[in-house]
Amino acid sequence: MNKKNDFSSFRILVTAGPTIEPIDPVRFISNFSTGTMGYKIAFQAKAYGAKVTLVSGPVNIIPPKNIDVISIQTAREMRDIILKKINDVDCIIMSSAVCDYRPVEFKNEKIKKKGKKISLELTENPDILEEIGTRDGLIKAGFALETSNAVKNAYKKLKEKKLDLIVYNMVSSSVTPFGENLTTIGIMDKHGNVKEFKNISKDKCAVLILDEIGELLSRGRVKREV
Ligand code: CTP
């Protein structure tokens, strides 16, 4: 194991999967995230020797051994756990697909069919990566899922959420980054420099992403621009 891949002195928080936002006791809104990427990152970080905590939305994946897995459902539950843990980690990798919106109101009774159009009022969820803020010694990595202008949009998120690294991938009617499919990713550093990798497995993605993070961790404290 070379130095870049020796994570034995690092604590890493990984998030994976979707959040789900209940509407009534039998329904929710969510997204197509399967959690594959986040679980592979958590698994690889563990293989590199890190102490890993995985905060996971509902997925159909058997949790890796020796990894502390905390299961959540909603964005607000994910936010609460992360805020509790963030001061005890060296790095957070947010690969979860957090729902940006939730229903304004949870109905205790199942909503009955009414034979006419109904609408669902939504309110914004907290932006977890933004809310964490920054601190010396914390490396923040996020993902950007884009249907167009991936590089431009990823750069905007990198800056707005004050990230050290962002990984972007594209979604279209013919290309899906969800599940076990091969995927194309771009890894962007905090200055906007991009390395693109086409049609690679998610195991390979996890290795590439963690190698970049290993460089940042081994450089020690990340100096931030003000
Ligand atoms: N994220 C977050 N909190 C949210 C939404 C997203 O922390 N409420 C994180 C995601 O886990 C991801 C990054 O922010 O690491 C970007 O998520 P993405 O869904 O691509 O972008 P949004 O910020 O939600 O913006 P938009 O949906 O407008 O593209």
From TrEMBL:
Pfam families per record: DFP
Residue ranges annotated for the DNA/pantothenate metabolism flavoprotein C-terminal domain, each copy included: 11-215
GO molecular function terms attached to this record: ligase activity
InterPro entries to which the protein is assigned, alphabetical: CoaB-like_sf, DNA/pantothenate-metab_flavo_C
Signal peptide positions (record): none
Gene Ontology biological process terms, A to Z: coenzyme A biosynthetic process
Listed Gene3D superfamilies: CoaB-like (3.40.50.10300)
Keywords annotated in UniProt: Ligase
Protein name, UniProt field: Phosphopantothenoylcysteine decarboxylase/phosphopantothenate/cysteine ligase
Species of the source: Candidatus Omnitrophus magneticus
Lineage: Bacteria, Pseudomonadati, Candidatus Omnitrophota, Candidatus Omnitrophus
